[in-house]
Every structure is written in structure tokens, then in C-alpha cells.
Amino acid sequence: MPLRDSPTVVMGHGGGGQMSAELVEHIFVPAFANTVLSGLADSAVVSLGGAKLAFSTDSFVVRPLFFPGGSIGDLAVNGTVNDLAMSGAQAAYLSCGFILEEGTELQVVGEIAQRLGRAAKRAGVSVLTGDTKVVDAGHGDGVFVNTAGIGLIPDGIDIRPQRAQPGDVVIVSGAIAVHGIAIMSVREGLEFGIEIQSDCAPLNGLVQTMLAVAPDVHVLRDPTRGGLATSLNEIAQASGVGIELTERLLPVPEAVANGCSVLGLDPLYVANEGKLVAIVAPSDADATLAAMRTHPYGAEAVAIGTCVEAHAGMVVTRTGLGGTRVVDTPIGEQLPRIC
């Protein structure tokens, strides 16, 4: 467990949990303070020339660079496209920055670039500008990638974590914890009977399908670092509602559950890269679920809980034995370098 009062940066600061939140709150937010940044959503929503835009950036340091179902190039596109989609925006343009370690094989760099380009085409975005830097051998880890993106938010769309309300339904678009276990199966040389493929995918098409039938979606999040538990805790705290999950409804594939058991992990805290969590009004829940299930990336969508007035700002889950347990935000990171 990383020390909360460490005077130096530790891996837990990059895990998406409480230590990450404290780093942002105490160092970055005061330094860059403005009203847009203070929302701390997946993307910044701004008005420019009469248009409502979403703007986001993300950096990718995954190890290994290639894994079942994807690569750092796929993550670099899908991660930023999905952050924009969580504001209801259709991503349009990306920038891309490569940080390369001296000694990295050019064939590896070329393969990552090709995969990044193909992922951009699949997501319907164009990479318009970029940058490349090289660091001395031993001062990097092969290849790091940063992408930033912009997209247009249609009129009438207002998706943000503060909009969750008591009675709202919590929906997840499919099986959770798949990406993290796919990475760890390669990293640690583990086998679970079948190869676990990362769920890395662009979710902008799925979001547009949802908004076509239910334009008043209250909240969207892609539960990456810190997993579903961290995303739901952030939503609960931002909106002041409690969230109750039903454990038996959580979609965890058997192979992933076995992997989590072997590694001593809770699937709720394991990263996803091709899933979203949606919070919608109860009157929109059935239509939203039906629409999601028509899309390839939402075919296994399921309602897993509700927002409640009780225990405001907290997430709990009802267990199979009829009790409840608190699902807190992790302090650090169960699986470092996962995206």
C-alpha cells in the first residue's frame, strides 16, 4: 500500500484512485484554476464561436505495448475518443505525441503507428497534428503516446456527473474487468483456459445510438483506471446521491472472475477500455437498454443498480447473502501501467 504522505511521486499517484485525486486537487487544480477545469469530468466542455465543444487529452504508458485485443496505439485513439463521447460529443480531430526511448526498434514504432491509424479510421476521426521526442536509453520505457481530441456536442445534450438523481438507473454496457485481466495475463504469463481479449474499443457510435432514443442521458463515464467502483464513487460524490448495486447483476465473465481470484483482485476495481456506465432516468431505462443492445459494443448491456437518497456520496452493493458492503474508492492502483 503506497504511503498517502509520501514526499515523492509513487505509482499510486497514477492509479485513478484517492492518491490521483489528491494529486490533482492539491497541485494541478490550484495551479491551473478555472471554472471549466473545476468540473473534473472526462472532457472539458466549452463554447467557441457559438458551438459547444468537448476537449480532452490523455497519455498512455501501458506495458506491454501489444496485448490480446489491442495495443498502445489502439488505446491512444479509443481512450481520447471515449472521453469525448462521455460528454455526448462526436470526436472529430486528434493530435498525437510520441515519446520514444533511444534504442527502441523502428519496426515496433511503425507497427504502433499503423495500429493507431487504423483505430482512428474505425472511430471516424482524423489525426491532424503531432509531435515526436526521443529520450536517452534508460530514461523511458520504449514508447509513450499522448493524444488530445476535440468534438462537437449536439444542441440539447447535457451529460455530466452532477446530474445523477435519486431513482435513476445505473447501466453498464457489458462485461467488466476484461482489459485489466487481459493485460495481466500477458504480463504475468497466466493462463485461464481461454485467451482473454481486451475490450478496447471506440464508444462514440454506441453513445450516439443511445442519444438517438434517450437524449436526456444524465451521466456517462468510461470506467478505466480504478474500474467501475472509482467511476461510480466520483459520480456519487459529484451529485450527492447514493448508489446501490446488486452484486449478482454485475457482468463478470467466468474467465475474468477466475483471473481476479488468482490475482486477489476485485473486478469492480479493474480497468476497462471499451465499456461505459450510464445513469438515466427510470422512464428512459428500458429504451436506453434496448438501443444499446442493438449496437455491437452494447450487446450485453445490463442494469446493475439505482441511485438513492440514502448514504449520499457513497456506493454500496447488495451481496448474494442479502447484506450490503461499501464499495469505496481505492487509495492507489491494483494494476499499474494498465493504459
From TrEMBL:
Domain PurM-like N-terminal: residue ranges: 42-153
SUPFAM superfamilies tied to this protein: PurM C-terminal domain-like, PurM N-terminal domain-like
InterPro entries: HypE (IPR011854), PurM-like_C_dom (IPR010918), PurM-like_C_sf (IPR036676), PurM-like_N (IPR016188), PurM-like_N_sf (IPR036921)
Domain PurM-like C-terminal: 165-311
Top-level taxon in the UniProt lineage: Bacteria
Family matches, as NCBIfam families: hypE (TIGR02124)
Entry-linked PANTHER family: CARBAMOYL DEHYDRATASE HYPE, HYDROGENASE ISOENZYMES FORMATION PROTEIN HYPE
Similarity annotation: Belongs to the HypE family.
Protein name listed in UniProt: Hydrogenase expression/formation protein HypE
Source organism of the structure: Tenggerimyces flavus
